[in-house]
Design goal:
alpha+beta; DNA replication; five-stranded antiparallel sheet; primosome; Dna Topoisomerase Vi A Subunit, Chain: A, domain 2; six-stranded mixed sheet
Length: 1028
């Protein structure tokens, strides 16, 4: 039956798409819509917009409804997706009356019903034949009977296809058609099941008669090279015993997977029932997804043969990015009947102990990769083979954990050793207009030397880095105490406040007990006293040579600067039983102010919230650390906090660079109101900024509200914000006890001086009009203005008037370009690995040449002449680092020393990775906004960072990302480089045409013409594509 269109629309309209997607991806509300990272492609910033009934990705252009999303997520058909949604939300489906088209659908349905019936009939027929075979073999007393009775029956679901005549008679009688040229009679048949328990096909053994006639053959060899039959190839799962194993695996929370029937029988006879047989060359991602619905752990049991190693590697590569399934492995020696022989030395408990001592698959892969290699080559082999696979993991926290673990386990060091961020290739290059920046050897290609020139004060920078490094270590030290037994009660307190253990780790929260642990380390001479004293982490005690921790008996909250580096600590009082002492101690304390930290300059969580603020278009400002942590944990990531102050001028200058809408969400008590008033006096003079106030219930703070009422209620309050100036008027009116004279006096004192001094006359008139309409109905705007201008308040108070921050010119020099190909080449370099680059480009970068000298010669000339000096300088910076890290892309280099890069190089990386804090540093944060022009062509060649070029930059970045995801990045680089080279040749030919030709010039001209043809033929053998 065909679904009615009204029924389809009813499903789409009735299901809240935003709430539905929250089940599967992280969704963040933004006004009437929501945003998320697109589930259809890899991205670092949200471009996936979710509306009530449909979604749209502005990056990959994915678009659809809740039905389309379910089809993509589950791989279901449209009908199956509709039925699943109907069942999930209890929405009935309506069907049309039969039509001609319905009849076709019914024919299709009848086909599947018939196939299912045929499979069930075949299974019944095969089982009857098995009973006959067992009876016959019992009478003949053959070895095969013993093998079936003791080796197969009761352990594995199987049957028998029958003799050739029985087999043919059955299929001719039942009119079942099997599309194969093989004779499937006289074989064991193993049913293969879907995940729902229905049969989807059979696997057939070799003919048993061959083994009956040849007593020297091992019956186990029956199961070599099984033949497959299925009418449903798309839903066929190439695994045996899944129908039984899934039940036991669900209970045991673990599934064992073997690659052969003999290994399976060995384990089942030992009482291991949660085991299945994978009959492919790997456990692919489709099987992994099915397994992940049942169990959290899959353990592969493989021999140490070449096939076992290949199975292990392919499974590892296919499933590395799956987060919710842990792959483990057990290995045993490769010999005939190897697993059975291997396990004979164990009793039942011994087998269970062996199964419990499995390795993580990543450990086994790493060991196998580096096996038999000299110590000096192991790291290089790991970086060449394993590291590129790990870099495919999209969950950066998980990737960091794996790399940390592997480096400590196998190399005895931190993961930083994997990445060489500084280059040993020195490039001498100056950007002066007339200098000879590149020396080209006409015969041997080119050589580059990069000259690094840094004019910063090395000593000051070293001190700052040293302070930040010590803070990082201190944060880790206190975090370890929190997650240890000492921090048990502190953890319980945080959990009561709705903060999970995972969130404690992600925020790097810590605990400083009353035992002054950090001071003890100083007193025991394990660390020097200079740094902790300088940073205010410890204080001198009255006893000489003794110290105490500033944050003793406190939960530690790290404070990070606008660039994401640590600048200070905050401590929240946590005293278990000393209530009197607790009353005398402040609830929160911060590190002392220093060169690193000034609380009037820094907003808590600004670095973490920056991308969300730009994406959502507004910021929520709260009073305290815990308010901010609670909101962010609830998914409201565009939240920042002031630290014991109201908003300051410095705060406003930072915020107004990234948003023009600021929502104040302070506590609803008197102190919160006073902080809001002080914030208004600072923030209102910033022109073009919408200041709003969120109305929390009486006596509530954001942390308490979110824990009691939930995030949905909070989102409703976000949509009900009022202008801050309106709320301040309400408070002043309450304070005046509704007395007009007293209220006017308070308005003059606290507000109107700021209003009249505001640089925007329209804003002044709007506020005065509001006051007249709501409070002073007997006055006009002109009258109220005169009243204010004659007031002594206006003349007596110097007021700060500040325009909303505008980008300052001169902080970043323009970056002119000669053509679009140089920009595309730089984008591709950031995503590429050095060893995958075209051979001639690698040779040029390393000062080498191939047999065909023109390959490198033209490449070097093209890079030198077809790129602006700024672009070429950035190219040299990138390529020098790539040479030191040939198997890792620049974007995957976690420890790249950006301090050693030029401003343009840093900014380009920041744009590609959406590092908003670096874009903010150079006043280019607007490049991240989707509202900018979407023209795919380059508008201005004078400056790549001109906002007119934003559409072009976004378009090129999308093309490179998509080509990388589709495995076409190598072709993209080759195509871009060839365009650059051909453009150089064309320009050279045009230059030659202006000369009076002599023999020498004519020869050079003809050489270039031939080279152009040769180059197009030799280097255009890539798959050309257009992603437009």
């Amino acid at each position: 039956m065909r679904l009615r269109k009204q029924s389809i629309q009813n499903i789409i309209d009735s299901i809240n798409l935003q709430e539905h997607l929250k089940r599967y991806i992280e969704v963040k509300r933004s006004g009437s819509h929501a945003v998320a990272k697109c589930p259809f492609h890899q991205e670092s910033t949200p471009s996936f917009y979710i509306y009530p009934t449909n979604y749209h990705c502005f990056s990959c252009k994915a678009h659809g409804t809740v039905v389309d999303y379910e089809m993509h997520r589950t791989g279901a058909s449209f009908r199956e997706a509709m039925e699943n949604l109907s069942e999930m939300y209890q929405i009935p489906l309506e069907f049309e009356s039969p039509t001609e088209r319905d009849q076709k659908n019914q024919l299709s349905s009848a086909f599947f019903d018939k196939q299912n019936k045929n499979l069930n009939d075949m299974e019944g027929f095969f089982k009857e034949n098995l009973a006959k075979l067992i009876q016959k073999l019992d009478e003949e007393k053959t070895d095969l009977f013993s093998f079936i009775n003791n080796g197969l029956k009761g352990f594995l679901d199987f049957s028998y296809t029958g003799s050739e005549s029985e087999f043919q008679n059955f299929f001719s009688r039942s009119q079942i058609s099997i599309q194969t040229n093989l004779d499937l009679s006289e074989r064991f048949a193993f049913p293969v099941y879907k995940d729902n328990g229905k049969i989807t096909g059979f696997l057939f053994s070799n003919k048993i008669q061959v083994f009956i006639n040849n007593s020297s053959q091992n019956y186990i060899d029956l199961f070599e090279d099984l033949e497959t039959y299925t009418p449903f190839p798309k839903s066929f799962l190439p695994i045996l015993n899944w129908n039984t194993a899934r039940i036991h695996a669900t209970k045991a929370k673990e599934l064992f997977v073997v690659s052969s029937i003999p290994d399976f029988l060995t384990l089942v006879k030992k009482g291991i029932l949660n085991v299945t047989i994978c009959l492919q060359e790997k456990l692919d991602i489709n099987l992994a997804k099915i397994f992940s619905k049942r169990v959290p752990i899959v353990t592969l049991i493989l021999d140490d043969s070449q096939f076992g190693n290949s199975f292990l590697w392919k499974t590892f590569v296919d499933n590395i990015h799956i987060d919710d399934l842990l792959f483990q492995v057990l290995r045993f020696p490769k010999k005939p009947d190897s697993l059975e022989r291997f396990l004979t030395k164990f009793d039942t408990n011994g087998v269970l102990n062996w199964l419990a001592n499995s390795k993580q698959i990543i450990d086994e892969v790493t060991v196998k990769t580096m096996k038999d290699l000299p110590a000096s080559q192991k790291m290089e082999e790991f970086k060449k083979k394993v590291l590129p696979v790990l870099n495919k993991i999209e969950n950066y926290a998980r990737k960091d954990r794996l790399l940390d673990y592997l480096c400590k386990e196998h190399f005895g060091s931190a993961k930083d050793i994997l990445y060489q961020a500084t280059s040993s290739l020195h490039i001498e290059y100056t950007q002066k207009k007339n200098s000879n920046s590149i020396k080209i050897d006409e015969k041997k290609g080119s050589s580059y030397l990069l000259k690094a020139s840094h004019q910063s004060d090395i000593k000051d920078i070293s001190d700052i880095h040293g302070d930040k490094d010590f803070l990082n270590k201190t944060i880790l030290f206190y975090n370890r105490i929190l997650i240890s037994e000492i921090g048990k009660e502190a953890r319980f307190y945080l959990q009561e406040r709705g903060i999970s253990n995972e969130q404690m780790i992600s925020w790097n929260l810590g605990f400083s007990p009353g035992s002054n642990e950090l001071s003890r380390k100083v007193e025991l001479k394990r660390i020097e006293a200079e740094k902790p004293l300088k940073l205010g982490l410890i204080k001198n005690s009255k006893n000489i040579g003794k110290y105490f921790d500033l944050f003793h008996d406190r939960i530690i909250i790290p404070i990070y600067g606008n660039d994401g580096s640590p600048v200070a600590l905050a401590g929240r009082l946590f005293v278990k039983s000393q209530f009197k002492q607790a009353k005398e101690m402040p609830k929160y304390i911060n590190s002392p102010e220093s060169d690193l930290f000034a609380k009037s300059q820094i907003l808590f969580h600004f670095h973490g919230a920056l991308k969300s603020i730009i994406s959502y278009g507004y910021v929520i400002v709260v009073e305290g650390y815990m308010d901010c942590i609670s909101l962010v944990n609830a998914g409201i990531s565009n939240t920042v906090a002031v630290m014991g102050t109201a908003l300051t001028q410095a705060h406003m200058e930072v915020l107004t660079k990234v948003t023009k809408r600021i929502v104040i969400c302070f506590d609803s008590d008197k102190a919160g109101q006073n902080a809001a008033k002080r914030s208004f006096s600072v923030a209102f003079p910033f022109s073009g900024v919408d200041l709003e106030y969120m109305l929390l219930p009486e006596g509530k703070d954001p942390d308490e509200f979110i824990r009691k009422f939930g995030v949905e209620r909070f989102h409703k309050l976000t949509n009900q914000c009022v202008p801050l100036i309106h709320k301040i008027c309400d408070w002043l009116y309450e304070e005046s006890n509704a007395q007009p004279e007293r209220f006017l006096s308070l308005i003059k004192e606290h507000m109107l001086t700021l209003v009249i001094a505001h640089p925007n006359v329209q804003t002044q008139n709007e506020v005065l009009s509001f006051l007249c309409e709501r409070y002073f109905s007997n006055m006009t705007v002109v009258g109220l203005r005169k009243e204010m201008e004659s007031s002594s308040f206006f003349s007596s108070r110097p007021l700060f008037v500040k325009e909303a921050s505008a980008p300052q010119s001169g902080l970043l020099a323009d970056w002119p370009v000669l053509n679009v190909h140089e920009v595309k080449l730089l984008f591709t370099l950031l995503h590429s690995k050095f060893f995958e680059l075209p051979e001639r480009l690698k040779n040029v970068a390393q000062g080498q040449s191939s047999e065909e000298e023109w390959d490198e010669k033209i490449c070097a000339l093209a890079l030198n002449h077809q790129m602006s000096s700024e672009s070429f300088s950035v190219f040299l910076e990138f390529i020098s680092i790539m040479i030191e890290n040939p198997y890792v892309s620049l974007l995957d280099l976690e420890s790249i020393e950006k301090d050693g890069l030029s401003s343009h190089a840093k900014l380009l990386i920041a744009y590609v990775t959406s590092e908003a804090h670096i874009l903010l540093q150079y006043h280019k944060e607007e490049l991240l906004k989707e509202s900018l022009p979407v023209n795919a062509s380059m508008i201005s060649l004078k400056n790549i960072w001109d906002l007119k070029n934003s559409g072009f930059l976004r378009f090129q970045l999308r093309n490179v990302k998509l080509s990388s995801q589709r495995g076409g990045l190598t072709s993209f680089v080759a195509e871009t480089l060839l365009h650059l080279e051909l453009e150089y040749i064309d320009n050279a030919l045009r230059a030659f045409s202006s000369f009076h030709f002599d023999d020498e010039i004519d020869k050079q001209f003809q050489d270039l013409v031939r080279e152009r043809t040769r180059r197009r033929t030799k280097f255009s053998n890539f798959e050309s594509f257009s992603l437009q």
